[in-house]
């Protein structure tokens, strides 16, 4: 099963910025153990554009879709045999990247 693993940062209490080497090592392990599908970090929320094209014409708005102190900073997509494995990896990821992690299965 595939899992979306969201990295959540906090503007009022941001995670450490020196985690690159540890995250790279963790990613290499995910690849070696067969869990890796995809990952990427996101630019700051002030670079976001929200598009709403549910009406007669598209409306473009600057900034994130929700104003919040917490924001999505990056994602992984993992292939894991079950939720327990994904949660175990998520707990490791939270420690390694010094941020909250949200794990959600794809349907």
TrEMBL record:
Q: Which InterPro entries does the record cross-reference, listed alphabetically?
A: Dimeric_a/b-barrel, YCII
Q: Which Gene3D superfamilies match?
A: Dimeric alpha+beta barrel (3.30.70.1060)
User: SUPFAM superfamilies this protein is in?
Assistant: Dimeric alpha+beta barrel
- List the coiled-coil residues: none
> Which segments constitute the YCII-related domain?
1-93
Q: Which domain of life is it from?
A: Bacteria
What the record says about family reads: Belongs to the YciI family.
What PANTHER family does its record include? BLL7171 PROTEIN (PTHR35174:SF3), BLL7171 PROTEIN-RELATED (PTHR35174)
This chain belongs to which protein, by name? YciI family protein
